[in-house]
């Protein structure tokens, strides 16, 4: 299943949930890989942080899974909490208006739960994450910043 992402559009909640259910084992695999590859905290199809922390073969394994899972911007792990963002779409720029949407993994209770994240930009919480629970420890997320 391919998701429509990028260029200001983001996948619907229904599309993300279907993608997650169809490829649950692959999401678990990426999560395991990222944990094993510490101190790597950010893996994007075009860059990693810290730079040089993955072999080219391992990075290619991530890229293959990103394509299969429609993860336009890869994954980001929060080192302190262990939370992981699986970034399906992003829009705008990092220092101006923009945001991202995707799947989120957390072993901690999350606040700001919504019944739907199919929100207009005006409905999004400014510079905050919003979540929708989809399974134990798994959520959809959307983040917007102005």
Labels describing this entry:
single chain, alpha+beta, 3 helices
Concise overview:
Helix content is 25%, strand content 27%. The chain has 146 residues and is of the alpha+beta class.
Helix content: 25-40%
Question: Gap between N and C termini, in Å?
Answer: 31 Å
Tell me the radius of gyration.
14 Å
The H-and-E topology, N to C, reads as HHEEHEEEEE
Q: What portion of the residues fall into strands of 2 or more residues?
A: 25-35%
Largest beta-sheet details: 7 strands, antiparallel
- What is the global morphology? globular
- State the secondary-structure class: alpha+beta
**Assembly form of the protein:** single chain
Query: How many DSSP H or I helices?
Result: 3
Number of separate strands: 7
Low-confidence stretches: 1-8
Spatial order of strands in the largest sheet: 2-1-3-4-5-7-6
Total discrete domains: 1
Whole-number mean pLDDT? 87
């Amino acid at each position: 299943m391919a998701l429509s992402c990028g260029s200001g559009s983001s996948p619907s909640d229904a599309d993300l949930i279907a993608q997650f259910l169809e490829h649950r084992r692959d999401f678990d695999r990426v999560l395991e890989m990222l944990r094993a590859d510490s101190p790597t905290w950010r893996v994007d199809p075009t860059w990693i942080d810290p730079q040089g922390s993955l072999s080219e073969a391992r990075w290619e394994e991530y890229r293959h899974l990103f394509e299969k899972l429609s993860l336009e911007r890869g994954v980001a792990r929060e080192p302190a909490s262990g939370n992981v963002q699986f970034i399906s779409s992003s829009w705008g720029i990092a220092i101006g208006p923009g945001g991202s949407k995707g799947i989120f993994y957390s072993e901690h209770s999350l606040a700001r739960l919504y019944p739907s994240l199919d929100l207009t930009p005006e409905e999004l919480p400014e510079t905050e994450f919003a979540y929708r629970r989809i399974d134990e420890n798994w959520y959809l997320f959307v983040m917007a910043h102005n």
